Amino acid sequence: MNSTDTTLGTAGGGTDRRRWFALAIVMTAAFMDLVDVTIVNIAIPSIRQESGASFSQIQWITAGYALAFAAGLITGGRLGDIHGRKRIFLVGIGGFTVASALCGLAVNPEMLVASRFLQGAMAALMVPQVLSIVHATFPAHERGKVFGLFGAVVGLGAVSGPLLGALLTEWNLFGWEWRSIFLINLPVGVAGLVLGSRFITESKAPRALKLDLVGVALVTLGLLMLLYPLIRGRELDWPVWGYVSMAGSLVVLAVLVAYERRKGARDGSPLVELSLFKVKSFAAGIAVQTVFGIALGVFFLVWTLYMQVGLGWRPLKAGLTGVPFSIAVSAAAGMSVQMLVPRFGRKVLQAGALVMGAGVLLYIWESGHYGLAIAPWQMALPLVVMGVGMGLIVAPLTDAILSEVPREHAGSASGLINTVQQMGNALGLALVSVVFFGTISDHLRPEQIGPAFVDAFQNALGWVVVVMGAIFLLMFALPKRPAQHVEGEQAPVEGKEPALVS
């Protein structure tokens, strides 16, 4: 993806008042994507009970979206560069709306899983255009204000997603039960499609780029060969073909690297700019982002199952329990960027990893100490500690990774950052079958379900602590202080959603 834009239509988009309508539209789309991830987590037990979905299918309902989103992000950004950001954004939001309708009308778990894959693929077309459109529409002196608004939208989405999911599930509007969490996207999507076609200004990259279809195919194949056996392995008693597939995925990814190297030398249009990995801070940051995604993928799914299946809480109770966590993330994220990182640099991110790990350890202790009698207020302290740690990481991490990247590659690098975070998230969701369900017997009596889920939750969180320790060590390879960018020159972070989603 290219960091330079040619704005079509109104010259000097920054002087056009309609740009604020365009901002509201693309921010709504970003909000819709973020809420859609968190809203599904809270409704998972209801989906499983009403649709009869297996635990493997439940994992695919969440992992399928993340996998399709991850595999398509770079492609979505490149399509916007080639064919126009407005055009691809409208295709994405239209397709996302249709996919949401298919999710809400799903007649069986298989249709729901397939529709979630489609929804993730359409989000991969829609989301990368958001900040690209902002970059092309607003002059440099206004972008600080705009990105501040974007941060507020992200914080609002983090808080409102679980609550909205809980309320819609509890209210059972029109007898739709969990289906309303998808169908609510329809009026929002239609409004975004109509208003976007009127108010968004078209923009493209100045140099014609080519779409690397072979690279897209190799990335998708490699991920599927790795993730499918992890998700289905426990259910199928870990067949030999699963291990062969996972080993084969490494071969496919090695072929991808070799192909991308040759394609970059041949026409300068690879899907992945491999030269970026020669930058130490970028390579380390990509590792941090991937591993952090794994931790989040594991935590958010097992947390929902622990509260609603293990403890037997209703969706609204579980949703309200997460509010202190979301508020802590938003508050710490704002402080880290504005006050702490400029003074302490990399140490803020490392402190975040340690604080989040401490919060997880506290949660493990409380879960074991209080057992099935634990109350939401008793979870507040570990969740706030975890939220503070996460907030110290998510906001400044992108700048730290990009600080030593050559400016001409900033667009490609930022797209890759979000892609690997989503890939890590999908991998974490797949690993739930090992670190969580792997400790639960297939034949539990009703009175055994609660204690079994508490034990599995503690086991999964133990692995999250190990991951946070690895992240702390990896952060030593990040620059001590991110380089200061000149306002208006840094490329937009295309496709970048802060790591609040899972």
UniProtKB/TrEMBL annotation:
Listed transmembrane segments: 20-44, 56-76, 88-107, 113-134, 146-168, 180-201, 213-231, 243-260, 281-306, 318-341, 348-365, 377-402, 423-440, 460-478
Signal sequence interval, chain numbering: none
Keyword Secreted appears in the UniProt entry: no
Chief localisation class: membrane
Gene3D superfamilies: MFS general substrate transporter like domains, Multidrug resistance protein D
Membrane topology summary: Multi-pass membrane protein
Top-level taxon of origin: Bacteria
Gene Ontology cellular-component annotations: plasma membrane
Keyword list, A-Z: Antibiotic resistance, Cell membrane, Membrane, Transmembrane, Transmembrane helix, Transport
InterPro entries hit by this protein: EmrB-like, MFS, MFS_dom, MFS_trans_sf
Compartments reported by the entry: Cell membrane
Biological processes annotated in GO: response to antibiotic
Molecular-function GO term, any one: transmembrane transporter activity
Domain Major facilitator superfamily (MFS) profile: 22-481
The name this protein goes by in its record: EmrB/QacA subfamily drug resistance transporter
Source organism: Streptomyces luteogriseus
